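User: tokens in, sequence out, please.
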């Protein structure tokens, strides 16, 4: 049986944590458990009734790898949900990947914060994520930072250390 975390379902769909718990308690056929990370997981098949999930094997495998914590798969899930115009889900996956030092996800997450796509506009957070991507050698992020040079007081900006 394929299981997906409750956190992923909340990010992908439109339902709150409270709504999901109500569904789980109201439906004894929902098979739930706990994964090694301590997260509540439920059956993909049960979840399909309430949220659109991929049906093809390769996309579902990518989503399962993303949910398990693989940063490249998380970035790919962000790209997939962005293309589907589910920007809140895209931001969820990009943040998860960015927190694991995925430079592509950092740059895309920064763009979301600057443009207010899937999150409230927060230019400081956007610049921070783009700067972090640049410190990891991301060429687009480096170009974006070069374009911002005339507009930013770099002495007052705290950037993460270069590793």
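Assistant: Sequence out:
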């Amino acid at each position: 049986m394929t299981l997906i975390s409750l956190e992923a379902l909340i990010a992908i769909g439109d339902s709150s944590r409270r709504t999901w718990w109500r569904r789980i308690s109201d439906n004894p056929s929902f098979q739930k458990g706990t994964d090694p990370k301590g997260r509540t997981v439920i059956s993909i098949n049960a979840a399909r009734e309430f949220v659109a999930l991929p049906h093809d094997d390769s996309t579902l495998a990518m989503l399962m790898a993303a949910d398990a914590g693989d940063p490249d798969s998380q970035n790919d899930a962000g790209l997939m949900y962005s293309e589907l115009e589910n920007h809140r889900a895209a931001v969820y996956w990009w943040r998860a990947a960015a927190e694991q030092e995925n430079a592509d996800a950092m740059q895309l997450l920064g763009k979301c914060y600057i443009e207010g796509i899937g999150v409230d506009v927060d230019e400081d957070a956007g610049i921070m994520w783009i700067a972090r991507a640049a410190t990891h050698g991301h060429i687009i992020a480096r170009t974006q930072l070069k374009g911002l040079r005339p507009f930013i007081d770099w002495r007052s900006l705290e950037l993460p250390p270069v590793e």
